[in-house]
Design goal:
The protein is an alpha/beta fold. Strand 3 and strand 4 form a beta hairpin. It starts with a strand and ends in a 23-residue tail after the last strand. The relative contact order is 0.20.
Length: about 350
């Protein structure tokens, strides 16, 4: 089974209805060769762009157990020792250990019905990010690159797509090209490397260096390398804009008050969620934050308990912080993993991969 928790808000007059958008997203996530993420987003491109929408994807790598997160089955053999807790929404119960998320449930849409037929991590991760199963002939773009391409403003001096904590597991931009490729941040508590001017180089001197580079490239373009020069200039143009951008300070989570940072949790994932909020507030269109460790074939209950201590405060703080700052209505937050876990508890007190296998 595939487990996802999604938050989505609409504005007061109901533009871009919750049901319509979720239906498109569900079809895109299912893939099945009928509609990928690009098609789902393209259905609403004009409205999303007009509203200045952004998206934050919280990806739980390894396949989180639905039974120890948001679909517990206490008192059953398959449910194990996990207890359920009530939430701010009457009738909705989630697993113990997710107290902060339970308190924020009025601003969360919980989906317990999604499934995935892929049961291998790499293939499922690719499918959930692109809407398609892996193909040997086509490299499909990640949802982050798709959203950046479809609704990212053309005149913007930071990357449209930032991936936090995903250095070795980021799905790229595929056939959309490098202009919407993910900008990877390994450590959210440090400024990205090579984005600040070197010591002793001011903006005027930096601009003169760029002019010199253009002169050198002009000769190469005139000699038949025009296409390559244009590609190179596009990449360098984006990089130079970022280096000189006053928005670059959005990457400095150290500027936040100590109590805010504590609220998210002093973990890489917690600070990554805080950085995500800072980035969308600065105008970045799509941010992904990853959390490893959900492949719980052994010792599932203790491991998920430890993971929830990291994920619960960060996820809840992100939703409430966005709401307090008045930007929740134009920020879609998605919590998901590549698939869920088996109801059956194995001999190692774990849960195995649980793809939906069709029976005919």
């Amino acid at each position: 089974m595939f487990q996802s928790l999604m938050h989505i808000r609409t504005n007061g007059d109901g533009v871009l209805s919750r049901r319509t958008f979720l239906r498109s997203v569900a079809v895109g996530a299912a893939g099945a060769g009928l509609m990928g993420w690009k098609d789902a987003v393209a259905l609403h491109t004009d409205e999303l762009r007009k509203r200045g929408m952004a998206c934050i994807l919280l990806f739980m790598r390894g396949g989180p157990s639905q039974l120890e997160t948001f679909d517990p089955k206490p008192g059953t053999d398959h449910g194990g020792p996990t207890k359920s807790i009530s939430t701010a929404v009457s009738g909705i119960h989630i697993a113990e250990g997710w107290t902060k998320v339970a308190e924020a449930m009025k601003d969360i849409t919980l989906i317990r019905s999604m499934t995935n037929r892929e049961g291998e991590h790499v293939r499922a991760t690719y499918q959930l990010h692109t809407g398609y199963v892996p193909s040997g002939t086509v490299k499909y773009p990640s949802i982050g690159s798709i959203v950046a391409s479809e609704i990212g403003p053309s005149e913007f001096d930071l990357p449209h797509f930032v991936s936090i904590g995903n250095r070795l597991a980021t799905i790229g931009s595929g056939f959309l090209g490098m202009s919407v490729a993910p900008f990877v941040v390994g450590n959210p508590e440090q400024m990205p490397t090579n984005v600040e001017l070197p010591r002793g180089i001011n903006s005027q001197r930096f601009s003169r260096r760029l002019d010199l580079l253009k002169d050198l490239e002009h000769d190469f373009a005139e000699s038949g390398g025009k296409t390559r020069v244009e590609e190179h200039q596009g990449t360098y143009g984006s990089a130079s804009q970022m280096v000189l951008s006053p928005r670059l300070k959005a990457f400095e989570v150290s500027q936040e008050k100590a109590e805010i940072r504590d609220h998210y949790g002093r973990t890489p994932f917690g600070q990554g969620c805080l950085l995500a909020r800072r980035l969308v507030e600065a105008g970045v269109t799509f941010v992904e934050v990853g959390l490893d460790g959900w492949d719980t074939h052994q010792n599932n209950f203790d491991r998920v308990k430890n993971l929830s201590q990291t994920a619960d405060p960060a996820f809840a703080a992100l939703v409430t912080d966005l709401k307090d700052r008045g930007i929740l209505d134009k920020t879609l937050v998605i919590w998901m993993g590549e698939f869920g876990r088996t109801p059956k508890i194995n001999a190692q007190t774990g849960r195995d991969h649980f793809p939906l296998i069709s029976r005919r």
